[in-house]
């Protein structure tokens, strides 16, 4: 295309580097939660995800040794043993016994405790506290270690959110909402679009204008009236209720996109079919539907992404219980109840965005086509 | 002669009116019949089958299949019925086809019109009515809701923030989108870059909020920062800050999320528009010795103003409706409230449908100019 313009090497470098920076800015946030979601939760809470591959030196959270009353007698001394690493792997550089001087002692040095014990820490994390007499006391000594922990990766976070935080059930609920809420509007809109594109009837132009106008009506307008309506006629909070709601809200875009596409199909095909005695219903089913596949696919992806990612409609039209809470609602709830547990939030977020991202990358072609048809042509 | 014409045209009008009424009645009858039949079939099947299956998943799938089947059933059944009462054969074939052709558009359009009316048109009028009513809609309060709105500091804050969002987000997303479009069109791996910049569009607002909340995460000074932003700030020697709690500026940290999501949309559309620019105009400029920047700003951008306007208005409408980001990040605390979340707050926590409807109407009024412009533009095309 305009390659001739930017062919000067210096400029080409600037362009390449700018694009790399842009791409980094747009992908790093997502990449960050993906990496974090498979990190060990203790490491995740202490260091940035960008350090996750390096086994860097860091202050580990203070470890409390076993309480002195549990000391065992050995060779005339009373000893307490253990390891400062929960799973036994890692390397200690320095240690300390108070939060003011967490790096006071080197490996091999002994620290004298206030209760008369003597603490030694090995570089592999093993510690040994020995007393001359049988100690008492319920509170174990706090040991501060600065150490090197190897990077740890795990799928435990996913196991936890899917099985015990309820994301598995929410995944099914979201599917239950999304599939019909994608198919039903396509069916209804396709028929309406065909009528608006190819059939003659009074009021067609007005209807089209109404559809275009409704494209931008904010959802907020509809929530309260429909909530009242649903309560009055007894639909309440149910899956059919939310399917219809998503259908209603998605229809203007669906009709608009499909109508533009169907109106652009060659008229001759239709006329020759009519001459052959086909009814409108046959023409629609056998000719229009197959031909408009690209437009149908575009809208289907839009609607799928929109419904899958929706929080507002689901919050209003579905309940907050186990059987109805969708992924977005669950994520919002976890954000409230587990605000600081990033291992849960990152894994949950990734579960909720996984399917849309797969759909996005595999069907991007149709999505782009739909976007262009929806905004450039319609202006 | 003229009297005769007159009378015959009156007769014709009368017949047409009669025909219309009959048509309307028939459409209604067929639609109701179609719906009733599909609903009945669906219910019977549901009851018959749900006895055997207790698992939630099976039930969900069943309900799904039935919902879609009911929909298909309507279109098939109603068309079949129309062909049965007005068969396109026999001695009345011609008039039957004519009659059926009058009715069929309405069968095709019926469900769409009914749903649009219930879900989008009726609520507009109902909301207007509710804005003059009390919390539950049972009592009339006159203009109280509007008076409350005018004097409520929280509303003023939301309104001000919304204006801020409306200025910053569409502008930033469009500019970034334009830059991304212009740059990616010049390099060999441009399509991959586009895909990656476009990707956030597939992520839910709430998912994006979690992603960015992690970036804005704050740890006390002296400990390792696990949020990227604070880590960078500390690395450059600054003090870590709890970004989303800083009044006024936190608005911008929330806006970043929406800009991040929408840039890809702007890029895709603007890139297509840039490619659509006639080569000759660009070549002429090159021959005249224009620099790449001059070509971009003086030749290309002016030719795609129309598309830029479309992108801008589309994002503007989205901005007015976005509430998830504010709900998830701050829930309107620290001076970051916006209208959509303010409305949600009055609906679910305040439980005041009157006030919530009034706020919704404010959002609607802000959309109306764009709606009007869209309709005008669309009519030019059709």
Task: Sum this structure up briefly.
With 379 residues, chain A is α+β, with helices and mostly antiparallel strands. Chain A has helices spanning 9-37, 41-46, 156-163, 167-198, 204-214, 220-233, 239-263, 267-275, 280-291, 293-309, 312-317, 327-337, 342-362, 364-377, and strands at 57-59, 63-64, 72-74, 77-83, 91-96, 105-106, 111-112, 118-121, 126-131, 142-148.
Main attributes of the structure:
heterodimer; A: 379 residues; alpha+beta; B: 382 residues; mainly alpha; 0% strand; globular
Regions with little confidence, pLDDT below 50 for 5+ residues of chain A: 1-6
Low-confidence stretches of chain B: 1-7
**What portion of residues of chain B belong to β-strands?**
under 5%
Q: Total number of helical segments of chain A?
A: 14
Q: Regarding quaternary structure, how should these chains be classified?
A: heterodimer
Which structural class best describes the helix and strand composition of chain A?
alpha+beta
Rg of chain B, alpha carbons? 29 Å
Derived structural class of chain B: mainly alpha
Percent strand of chain A: 5-15%
Task: Specify the overall morphology of chain B.
Answer: globular
């Amino acid at each position: 295309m305009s390659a001739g313009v930017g062919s000067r090497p210096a400029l080409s470098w600037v362009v390449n580097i700018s694009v790399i920076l842009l791409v980094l800015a747009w992908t790093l946030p997502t990449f960050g939660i993906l990496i974090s979601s498979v990190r060990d939760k203790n490491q995740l809470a202490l260091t940035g995800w960008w350090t996750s591959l390096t086994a860097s030196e860091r202050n580990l959270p203070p470890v409390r040794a076993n309480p002195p009353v549990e000391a065992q007698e050995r060779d005339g001394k009373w000893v307490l043993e253990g390891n400062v690493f929960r799973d036994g792997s890692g390397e200690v550089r320095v240690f300390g016994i108070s939060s003011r001087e967490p790096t006071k002692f080197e490996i091999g040095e002994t620290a004298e405790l206030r209760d008369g014990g003597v603490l030694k820490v090995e570089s592999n994390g093993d510690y040994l506290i020995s007393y001359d007499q049988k100690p008492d006391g319920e509170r174990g000594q706090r040991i501060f270690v600065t150490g090197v922990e190897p990077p740890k990766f795990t799928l435990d976070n996913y196991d936890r959110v899917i099985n015990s935080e309820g994301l598995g059930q929410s995944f099914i609920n979201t599917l239950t909402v999304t599939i019909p809420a994608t198919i039903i509007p396509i069916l209804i809109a396709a028929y309406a679009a065909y009528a608006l594109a190819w059939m003659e009837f009074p009021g067609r132009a007005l209807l089209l204008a109404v559809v275009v106008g409704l494209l931008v009506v904010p959802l907020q307008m509809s929530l309260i009236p429909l909530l009242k309506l649903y309560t009055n006629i007894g639909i309440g909070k149910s899956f059919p209720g939310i399917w219809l709601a998503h259908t209603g809200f998605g229809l203007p875009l669906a009709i608009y996109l499909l109508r533009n596409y169907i109106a652009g199909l060659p008229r001759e095909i239709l006329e020759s079919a009519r001459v052959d005695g086909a009814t409108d219903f046959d023409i629609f089913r056998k000719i229009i539907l197959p031909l408009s596949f690209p437009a149908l696919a575009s809208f289907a992806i839009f609607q799928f992404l929109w419904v899958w990612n929706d929080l507002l409609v689901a919050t209003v039209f579905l309940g907050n219980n186990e059987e109805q809470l969708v992924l977005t609602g669950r994520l919002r709830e976890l954000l409230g109840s587990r605000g600081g547990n990033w291992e849960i939030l990152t894994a949950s977020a990734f579960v909720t965005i996984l399917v849309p991202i797969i759909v996005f990358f595999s069907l991007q072609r149709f999505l782009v086509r739909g976007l262009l048809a929806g905004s450039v042509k319609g202006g | 002669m003229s009297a005769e014409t007159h009378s015959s045209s009156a007769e014709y009008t009368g017949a047409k009116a009669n025909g219309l009424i009959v048509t309307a009645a028939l459409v209604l009858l067929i639609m109701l019949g179609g719906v009733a039949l599909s609903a009945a079939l669906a219910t019977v099947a549901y009851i018959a089958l749900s006895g055997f299956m207790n698992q939630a998943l099976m039930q969900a799938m069943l309900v799904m299949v039935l919902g879609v089947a009911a929909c298909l059933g309507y279109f098939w059944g109603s068309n079949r019925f129309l062909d049965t009462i007005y068969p396109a054969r026999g001695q009345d074939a011609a008039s039957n086809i004519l009659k059926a052709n009058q009715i069929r558009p309405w069968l095709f359009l019926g469900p769409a019109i009914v749903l649009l009316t219930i879900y989008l048109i009726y609520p507009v009028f109902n909301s207007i009515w509710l804005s003059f009513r009390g919390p539950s809609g049972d009592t009339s309060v006159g203009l109280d809701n509007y008076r409350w709105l005018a004097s409520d500091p929280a509303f003023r804050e939301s309104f001000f923030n919304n204006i801020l969002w409306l200025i910053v987000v569409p502008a930033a997303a469009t500019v970034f989108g334009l830059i991304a479009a212009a740059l990616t069109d010049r390099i060999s791996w441009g399509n991959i870059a586009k895909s990656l910049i476009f990707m956030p569009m597939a992520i839910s607002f709430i998912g994006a909020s979690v992603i960015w909340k992690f970036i804005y995460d704050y740890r006390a000074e002296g400990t390792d920062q696990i949020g990227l932003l604070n880590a960078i700030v500390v690395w450059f020697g600054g003090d870590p800050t709890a970004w989303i709690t800083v009044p006024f500026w936190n608005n911008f940290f929330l806006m970043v999320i929406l800009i991040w999501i929408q840039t890809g949309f702007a890029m895709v559309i603007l890139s297509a528009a840039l490619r659509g620019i006639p080569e000759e105009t660009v070549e002429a400029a090159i021959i005249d010795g224009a620099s790449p920047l001059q070509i971009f700003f003086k030749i290309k951008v002016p030719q795609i103003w129309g598309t830029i306007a479309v992108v801008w208005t589309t994002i503007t409408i989205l901005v007015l409706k976005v509430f998830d980001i504010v709900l998830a990040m701050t829930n309107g605390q620290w001076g970051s409230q916006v209208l959509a979340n303010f409305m949600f707050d009055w609906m679910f926590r305040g439980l005041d449908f009157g006030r919530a409807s009034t706020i919704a109407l404010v959002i609607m009024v802000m959309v109306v100019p764009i709606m009007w412009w869209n309709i005008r533009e669309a009519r030019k095309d059709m």
